[in-house]
Amino acid sequence: MADHEVGMYRATDSQSEQGCQRQALIWNRLSKKALLRVAVGLSAALGGFALLNVVTDRGMMLMTVEDVGVKDEDKAVFRHCLCVFDIDRTLTAKQGWAEKCKDHHVTELAGIQDEAYAKGTMIVSELAQSMSASFCGKCYHGIVTAGIASGPNSLEREHILEYLGGTARTLTDFWQDISFQPQTEIQSSLVVRAKDGNKQDTVKKMVQWWRNVKKIDIDDGDVYFFDDMAENVKPFANTGLNAFQVSCAVRGPAEKLPGAYDGKIGGCGGAFSELDQIAAKKGVHLCPKSK
User: Fold this and answer.
1) CA 62 – CA 48 distance, rounded (Å)
2) Alpha-carbon torsion, ordered 153, 155, 157, 163, to 10 deg
3) At the N or C end, where does the chain have fewer CB atoms within 10 A?
4) In the 8-state DSSP scheme, what is residue 266?
5) Is residue 158 helix, strand or coil?
């Protein structure tokens, strides 16, 4: 084999060929990332619903966090505001309601299990898909939910984190289970098994975590919480935090949870309009029929 001398390095034809192949793979990868970033950017600019995963089902394309390069080292500087979301019927819709909620721009993720309530295939709400194009697109993000997001290492948790914008928005990928104990010290922006009716306490403790651990000073008045249940929104009154009931257009049937009744929880999940209108609002806001 012939040798090619480059400075102090001597490479064989075989090594040179392998190097070229590696470079070609790298350029292909970079091109793919660039195209995906453009797709996400265009979708957000159009108020669109940029999905983050890679699946082709019923003509939809989903992209992974890895594909669009949303990683810890890519952290952006966001405004010092925080949007905190419930998951079940806020970022998701009722399992099995993809057809019923089609006019509300939901997306069913084939093969992804959602263990909430009656269980079934995960359906993502319009609110989750359009988060980056809304007012909250300028803020950091968090989760405070009574559910478990299908448990540790689940695909649901992976997808939810992607819709939030990855760790660039949450500054952690640690899901803290507080076992329905509102007094628990919060050590993450991703909190599961938070007690219904006491989520305001958990959000307040989360804000302290952002200030003390992440050194990001977020005023109480710049914190926005979203939940489909009125019982979780009303207690935010007089806390200095903002809270909004969502999934107002379509309410769900009674499910297996304490004090269940028809319409207690959402049906098709949160809508983009419910997220985008908060720029001009402060305080606590319920669905019209929940007041």
Assistant:
1) 13
2) 150
3) N
4) B
5) helix
Task: Extract the tokens encoding 130.
Answer: 């359009």
DSSP 186: P
Q: Comparing 16-30, 156-170, 195-209, 266-280, which segment has the lowest mean pLDDT?
A: 16-30
* Tens of pLDDT, residues 237-246: 999 999 999 9
Q: Are 269 and 90 in contact (CB under 8 A)?
A: yes
229 within 8 A of 205, measured Cβ to Cβ:
no
∠ CA 219-188-273, nearest 5°, is 60
Q: Max CA-CA distance within the chain?
A: 82
Q: What residues contact residue 215 under an 8 Å CB cut-off, 6+ apart? A: none
Q: What is the rounded CA–CA span in Å between residue 91 and residue 208?
A: 24
pTM for this predicted structure: 0.75
Q: What is the pLDDT of residues 154-174, one digit of tens each?
A: 999 999 999 999 999 999 999
For residue 124, the number of C-alpha atoms closer than 13 Å in the C-beta half-sphere is: 26
CA 231, distance to chain mean position in Å, is: 22
Q: Determine contact, residues 161/167, Cβ cutoff 8 Å.
A: yes
Q: In this structure, are residues 123 and 76 in contact, taking their beta carbons and an 8 Å threshold?
A: no
pLDDT of residue 188: 98
Q: How many residues does the chain have?
A: 291
| Distance from C-alpha of 132 to C-alpha of 94, rounded to nearest angstrom | 23
